[in-house]
Amino acid sequence: MARHANKVAGGLSLLAARRQGRSICHFAREFDCRATDTWVVRAVYETLQDELGAYRAGFPLSAGDRLVADLFIDHEDLDLAIVPGIAHRSLRSLENLEQNPRHGQVVTVGDLVRFFQAQPQVDSPNGLLCTPANG
Fold this sequence. Notes:
Blueprint: H1 2-18, H2 24-28, H3 38-52, H4 75-90, H5 109-117
């Protein structure tokens, strides 16, 4: 277990060193903002930041990063934590995932953005209308 953690931390550190100075702005520019919901872009970025934060805070993501091979994210974490987190943040449905044209084709961070872009929007994380806190 410790060896795996060291491998992950080392791999992420090498990747991050090559991308010093990159931020969410650089990541967002990798997508066509007229064709992609910027809330989805932000949700994917922030959720992956939360996931990678244990190894490397502020990791400079790229759309071409492979979730498993480059970022060392396992399928269980993807299914149980990352996908629900992105859906919650982007107000995208988790219903009928298998009907998504990108189902089974998510390899990179960019694929994850495009997958959620293809999911229907919901009114709130629980599918209920949000009410303002002050009234």
